[in-house]
Amino acid sequence: SATRPRHVRDTSPLGVVRDSASDGLGEVRFAKRELAAAVRKSLAELVAKKGDSVLANRLPTLRADRFVLQVVAKQKHRVPGVVRDVSGSGQTLFIEPKEVEGANTKLRQLAKREQTLERAVLQALSKRVGAPAVALELEALHSAVTKVDLAAARARYAAAVGGVPVRFSDHRAEGVALQGLLHPLLLQPAPSEPVERGDVVAQDYELPPHVRAIVITGPNTGGKTVALKNLGLAVLMAKAGLWPVCSEPRGRSLSADASPSAVAAVPWFDAVMADIGDDQSLVQSLSTFSAHVARVRSILQRVSGESLVLLDEVGAGTDPTEGSALGAAVLRRLKATAGLTMCTTHHSSLKTLKYSDPAFENACVEFDDVALAPTYRLLWGVPGRSNAIAIARRLGLQPDVLDDAVESLGAGEADVGELIERMQAEQGEQRALRQQLVGLRDEAEGARRQLEARRLEQEAAAAAEAAAACIQAAGYRVQVEKLRERVEALEASAAESEAAPGAAPLGNEEPAESSADVAAAQAAAEAAEAARSEAEAEARDLSRALDEARSKADAASAAAEERRVALDELTEEHEELLICLAEQDALAQALRSQLATERGAPLPATPATAALEASTPEALFDAFTQSNRERTHAYGSVI
């Protein structure tokens, strides 16, 4: 024990100062224990004398570190002593008998002496711990333990929520591709609650490299703000070493320097800046609009080319016309200065930024008009609708009020709303067809793996049978060779006996015996030859069976190759259909531009401007509908 550190020798594992830590501490504690035992013995004798009629409880207790008896208040005259405490009801008095008063005083003195000695030991240990060398070691130990504990906490959290390993990607070169991203707080609202994934809707984030700003629209309570926070949290979690909850991106290979276990590509941003929520304050004289402006000003001052900016309800809280113009100006500035910007809005003019600048992209949160409930799915490439009139109609608002609202909205706005609704429906059909195509791909890949495994099993079994047949044939050949050698030896011996002059045996016994041996040897040789022929025939049969197994395996491999070629053809047709979808988007853009021109708004500078000069909205809409039907029919043929 002499080699153990001083603080380990002087204290117990629970931090209690040991008796051996000081010269007089052990003696003081021993005297204190002996005196306390004597006091208890005296009190026990008093309890036995007084009886139950005097005492409220026969067990002695402590009050102010002094041993007392619990006496009934009406019987206090029967126990001479000092009242140290009274119960809450006043029915019980805690009396210190005169017989133990001196001993209690001595116990108090010993207790104070014990505290003084313990404090001296702890002060000496504190000085040793506070020494510069020891302090540096403790700080290094604390830092190491903190890192280990943090790593363990990350691992436990990833295992609890089913996190996916990540690698950082360059969004300017690879874009953004996060499939099935789940909000961590929706999975587990509190650490004490279990992880629930059944009711949480996953969101997909798919952006090409040239996109710098995304405008998310849709109804209230549809999940727009959650879409902003979901991506921001995924980026921050990845930077903190936490695995986000998402699925593996299909069709994207890892980079050469990425770990093979990393399956989710999270874009890298040096900072995540957000303007989410309402910070209006009477104390600071901030309205909703001024609070948003103050935060946007701070973001514009600190943003860099590698920053992620999240803006909720950009341009809200003021006149819609001025708010939309201000929001468009902010988005154009952030498109040029920030790495990626995502915003939510209800301003219709911000939806048209995509059609004049390819760096913008539209997205919307899906809403079920029949059930009057959001689906929380994020749809890319199409703007969203507020659905205010449809929801009000289904909620029973007076028809004349709704009709007045529709007339005030105008025919152009109604046509655009119908077009957006159809585009959302078409995108839903495309999503279902893509899911079917992915299922067919998975099925074909599973069939290919099964065929490959079956071919390998057949080849291994045929090879094993052929090896066994070869071994058996080799054994037969050895036996035949031995029999041939024996026959040749017997024939040579017989020939020597016949050729030797004067060596003819008396009688017929030896010649008869030699002839019998020769006949037996010939019979054995014939049997061995027959066995060899049978073995060779069996080996030929096994060889033919092996050739047949190889032929079947080759046929299965060819069938798998044909299915792979067919799958590649399906993939090419799928890509052609995606190109067709892009053309339909261009056609829809042209239709929106023409409708905007008819309402008096300026026509955006798009490639479809020339075609619009000789076209009408009705013709463009008919062409768009017919093309969608042809594309849907082609998609069905592919599936």
Written description of the protein model:
- The relative contact order is 0.05.
- Residues 250-262, 502-513, 601-617 and 635-639 have low confidence and may be disordered.
- The two termini are 79 Å apart.
- Strand 3 (81-86) and strand 4 form a beta hairpin.
- The strands form 4 sheets. The chain has a 6-stranded mixed beta sheet, with helices on both faces.
- It has helices at 6-10, 25-50, 101-129, 132-161, 171-174, 184-187, 224-239, 288-302, 320-337, 388-394, 399-409, 411-499, 509-598, 609-613, 617-638; strands at 55-63, 66-72, 81-86, 92-97, 166-169, 176-181, 203-207, 213-217, 264-267, 271-275, 307-311, 340-344, 360-368, 373-380.
- It is flat, with a radius of gyration of 47 Å.
- It is α/β, with parallel strands linked by helices and 639 residues long.
- Average pLDDT works out at 76
> Strand tally, please?
14
In terms of quaternary structure, the protein is: single chain
What's the alpha carbon Rg, rounded to whole Å?
A: 47 Å
Strand content: 5-15%
Which range best describes the helical content: under 10%, 10-25%, 25-40%, 40-55%, 55-70% or over 70%? 55-70%
Total helices: the number is: 15
- Report strand order across the widest sheet: 10-11-12-8-13-14
Compute the separation of the termini in Å.
Answer: 79 Å
Helix-strand category: alpha/beta
Which outline best applies?
flat
Largest pleated sheet? 6 strands, mixed
Please provide the ordered H/E string of secondary-structure elements: HHEEEEHHEHEHEEHEEHEHEEEHHHHHH
Low confidence ranges:
250-262, 502-513, 601-617, 635-639
